[in-house]
Q: What sequence folds into this?
């Protein structure tokens, strides 16, 4: 079976590479020529563990290819995955411009049966819009080609995307009522996962679309919940990690996403929570719990700046701050909505100087904030600074040579926004130490 993935970003590239690994013929399309050229050479445009091997292997096997020729790719594929970005508009709603452009392109090109699958995260009823856009273009051409629309939301996590795609917690397939053909084709695509006994949820398209927002909004709420508790812990001298452990050991709650820190970021939670709130509002409903999660998250970032300022006795003007970690989480180069960006801007606004290091995300972050100084490693970043701040919990920051750090800094102060060090150990190493919620 030939499949075409339109949009070769984090999701499209991983989806295309993994389907080709399953043995399918895959074409990945993007309208960014430079991206396609580098992929064709086997160079990855993003940092994602395990992806380069997977891509090179499947290019060599002839099952995976990359192109900017969207028309040809549409003709070749029986299943057309839409995996373009769905960024937020100024009012929090989802900007569907890229999805519409692709849907119209499909309508302008098809003349035989296709299954058009939305993999991008889109508000409920977007697949109806996709159907409408494709049909309008078909009508314009007087073309009668039959097509199905379907929703197959993606739940992969950046940094573990390949493993998540290959061993997902579940696969969600939303099809129109009675569309057995589309359902059978999509199940066939994912057959290797069936054999692994991955749970499949076959449902209606609106339910599939909503389920993606439900999952992300819930996880974001869990993060804000523990961050809110971290404030209370700081007030009472408690330990939020112990509270989270007590909660997480309850099987009904689970321990994941209960880590207090600088708040959620990335390309999904911030925009998806806003979109869920906006979508609910359009239905005349307040999605109050998610609104609160968003508000707590914004406050949490500001609190992190205040925490750093407090660690410097209330004044950062003219002080040098080392920032370790820029990506919104470890094992990715993605800085979209990364807490580090807001924190650095907050510090620069207050007159601090920033020296930063991240193992993967420096190029983009440097363009976004040219005022900060980028360093070649953690030790260069901490040199002659008044406070060291751990913002992203990359493994290499978990085992810093503390004696060396102490030698290099002007002042031995460490603000650990990911709670990866123990207060006692830091004290022994001669540091003044601040975590989150303890
Ligand atoms: P991305 O920005 O990394 O990639 C999108 C790609 O689409 C870009 O390369 C862009 O050039 C391309 N594109 C845009 N318009 C195009 C067109 N007309 N023709 C061809 N290519 C086009 O985005 P992403 O992170 O991969 O996210 C894609 C979707 O998946 C979003 O809806 C996102 O919410 C969702 N999602 C993302 C993640 C994640 O972790 N990144 C996880 C699950 C779901």
A:
């Amino acid at each position: 079976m030939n499949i075409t993935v339109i949009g070769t970003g984090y999701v499209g590239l991983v989806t295309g590479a993994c389907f080709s690994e399953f043995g399918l013929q895959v074409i990945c399309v993007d309208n960014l020529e430079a991206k396609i050229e580098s992929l064709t050479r086997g160079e990855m445009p993003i940092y994602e563990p395990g992806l380069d091997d997977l891509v090179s292997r499947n290019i060599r096997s002839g099952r995976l290819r990359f192109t900017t020729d969207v028309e040809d790719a549409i003709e070749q594929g029986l299943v057309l995955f839409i995996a373009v970005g769905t960024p937020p508009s100024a009012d929090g709603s989802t900007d569907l411009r890229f999805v519409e452009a692709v849907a119209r392109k499909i309508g302008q090109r098809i003349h035989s049966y296709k299954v058009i699958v939305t993999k991008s995260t889109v508000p409920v009823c977007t697949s109806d819009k996709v159907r409408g856009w494709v049909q309008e273009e078909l009508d314009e051409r007087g073309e009668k080609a039959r097509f199905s629309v379907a929703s197959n939301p993606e739940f992969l996590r950046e940094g573990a995307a390949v493993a998540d795609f290959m061993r997902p917690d579940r696969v969600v397939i939303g099809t129109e009522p009675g569309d057995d053909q589309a359902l059978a084709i999509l199940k066939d695509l994912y057959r290797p996962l069936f054999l692994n006994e991955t749970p499949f949820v076959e449902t209606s398209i609106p339910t599939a679309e909503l389920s993606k927002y439900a999952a992300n909004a819930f996880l974001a709420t869990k993060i804000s919940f523990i961050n809110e508790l971290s404030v209370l812990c700081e007030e009472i001298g408690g330990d939020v990690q112990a509270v989270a452990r007590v909660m997480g050991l309850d099987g009904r709650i689970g321990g994941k996403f209960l880590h207090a820190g600088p708040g959620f970021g990335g390309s999904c939670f911030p925009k998806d929570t806003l979109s869920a709130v906006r979508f609910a509002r359009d239905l005349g409903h307040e999605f109050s719990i998610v609104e609160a999660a968003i508000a707590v998250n914004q406050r949490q970032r500001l609190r992190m700046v205040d925490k750093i300022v407090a660690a410097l006795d209330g004044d950062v003007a003219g002080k040098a701050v080392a920032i370790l970690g820029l990506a919104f989480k470890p094992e990715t180069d993605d800085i979209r909505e990364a807490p580090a960006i807001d924190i650095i801007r907050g510090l620069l606004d207050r007159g601090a100087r920033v020296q930063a290091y991240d193992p993967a995300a420096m190029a983009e972050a440097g363009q976004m904030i040219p005022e900060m100084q980028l360093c070649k490693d953690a030790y260069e970043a901490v040199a002659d600074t008044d406070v060291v701040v751990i913002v992203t919990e990359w493994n290499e920051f978990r085992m810093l040579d503390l004696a060396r750090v102490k030698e290099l800094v002007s002042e031995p102060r460490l603000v650990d926004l990911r709670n990866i060090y123990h207060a006692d150990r830091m004290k022994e190493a001669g540091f003044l130490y601040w975590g989150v919620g303890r």
User: Anything to note?
Assistant: The chain has 19 helices and 14 strands. The CA atoms of residues 110 and 176 lie 20 Å apart. The chain has a mean pLDDT of 97. Residues 205-236 form the longest helix (32 residues).
